[in-house]
Design a protein that fits this description.
Blueprint (H helix, E strand, L loop, with lengths): L2 H10 L13 E5 L2 E4 L4 E4 L2 H4 L8 H13 L10 H14 L6 E5 L2 H13 L5 E5 L8 H6 L3 H4 L9 E4 L4 H7 L4 E6 L2 E2 L5 E2 L2 H14 L2 E5 L23 E4 L10 E5 L1 H5 L15 H16 L2 H17 L6 E7 L2 E6 L4 H10 L2 E2 L1 E4 L2 E4 L7 H16 L9
Parallel strand pairs: 3-15, 5-6, 5-7, 7-10, 10-11
Antiparallel strand pairs: 1-2, 2-3, 4-12, 8-9, 11-12, 13-14, 14-17, 16-17
Bound molecules: pyridoxal-5'-phosphate.
Length: about 400
């Protein structure tokens, strides 16, 4: 029995089974590599699902978190800290948020969405328009906005008033937004749906329709934000100004932290003292991590690098001209390699055996969301291995 198997047996008899049986027990990481407990090394092309923006063990993040841990990890929101204030200012700056904008800190993406739902309720309207394929989290409020039936149906009835429109369909959006709409909530790129890009025109239309209807435009940047698509936030490539954005995943570089950024004084004034809260949200440890991540993305030029590395990957995969590859979707370092057959899970498993972690986000799509510090050479090692991994896939009738 390997150490992996031994620990996974203990996992299965102690950890609630909602994630199924994980394939590996990971012990540590360094840069873009992680190691399992049997000593095998993997190139981490998923980055903890777009979380490990700086990879593993980045000295700037390690030292910021270590220093903060020695000073104060937690103080509650009965008080504030220099780190919390600085991170709020920094987030407003990178979001290009206008005067009068504000930040609410949470501990996760779903909690940032919950805050956005409460913000929307404060418009006095109960309608929320979200998109088919949307993923906004698993808490019951966020789940009402998430579209996938398998996630929702065991928990109905969910929060009422939410409607889902086909993502990217301009006419459907036009028809759905009206006087009852408190907010339209959209991901600029739908990560969990398989890295589907809504495009700039769609976000601009959403802005027009919500402004005309007096509804909020909330953009869920939990997966696309913090440099993932080559700019601080994906909405910045569409030239729209939303009313609010939700941020999490990459922000803490692995330390749990989420945020709702409200744009301008009017929207920021919707939630007032006593109307929302969190015990842990924006604690000094999380805030120090967020500051280190943002500072490092800036000082290492990782926005431009994410854009360049993403293009490099897409071109290199296309240049393989492999019959099982139909294309590469996405922006920056949020990508999906699309396949002509539903073999993504099989390819991901053989990639793992070959030392690469990729995510079969759909039966016919492999998602890559590597640390923003991934090098072109590291990406090339995966592209070089890909044809062999694809060639080794077997049609179901050929396996025995
Ligand atoms: C991951 C994700 C969430 C939920 O974040 P959690 O931290 O898992 O609660 C919400 N929206 C989007 C777009 C995400 O990718």
């Amino acid at each position: 029995m390997t150490h992996n198997d031994e620990l996974l047996a203990r996992y299965e008899s102690s950890v609630l089974g909602v994630f199924g049986r994980p394939p590996l027990v990971l012990s540590h990481g360094d840069g873009c590599y992680v190691w399992d407990v049997d000593g095998h090394r993997y190139l981490d092309l998923v980055g903890g699902i777009a979380v490990n923006a700086l990879g593993h063990g980045h000295p700037a993040l390690v030292s910021a978190v270590s220093k903060q841990a020695g000073e104060a990890i937690h103080i509650s929101n009965l008080f504030t800290s220099p780190a919390q204030i600085a991170l709020a200012e920094r987030l407003l700056g990178i979001a290009g948020a206008p005067e009068g904008s504000r930040v609410f800190f949470a501990n996760s993406g779903a909690e940032a969405i919950e805050a956005a739902i409460k913000l929307s309720r404060r418009t006095g309207r109960t309608g929320i328009v979200a998109a088919e394929g949307a993923f906004h989290g698993r808490t019951t409020g966020a789940l009402a906005l998430t579209h996938k039936a398998a996630y929702r149906e065991p928990f109905t009835p969910l929060l009422p008033g939410v409607s889902h429109v086909p993502y990217g369909d301009e006419e459907a959006l036009r028809a759905a937004v009206g006087p009852e709409t408190g907010a339209v909530v959209l991901e600029p790129v739908q990560g969990e749906a398989g890295v589907l890009d809504g495009g700039a025109a769609y976000l601009r239309l959403a802005r027009e329709l919500t402004s005309a209807a007096g509804a909020l435009l909330v953009l869920d940047e939990i997966q696309t934000g913090i440099g993932r698509t080559g700019t601080w936030f994906a909405f910045q490539q569409a030239g729209v100004v939303p009313d609010a954005i939700t941020v999490a995943k990459g922000l803490g570089g692995g330390v749990p932290v989420g945020a709702l950024v409200t744009f301008g004084p009017e929207v920021s004034g919707l939630l007032t003292a006593g109307q929302h809260g969190s015990t842990f949200g924006g604690n000094p440890l999380a805030a120090a991590a967020g500051l280190a991540v943002i500072d490092t993305i800036e000082s290492e030029g990782l926005l431009a690098h994410a854009a360049l590395a993403g293009e490099h990957l897409a071109e290199a995969v296309a240049a393989l001209h492999h019959p099982l590859v139909s294309g590469v979707r996405g922006r920056g370092l949020l990508r999906a390699i699309t396949l002509t057959a539903p073999v993504a899970a099989q390819v991901a498993a053989s990639a793992r055996d070959a030392g690469f972690i990729v995510n079969p986000v759909a039966p016919d799509a492999l998602r890559l969301a590597p640390p923003l510090v991934v090098t072109l050479e590291q990406l090339d090692t995966f592209v070089a291995a890909l044809p062999g991994l694809l060639d080794a896939t077997t049609a179901p009738e050929e396996t025995s």
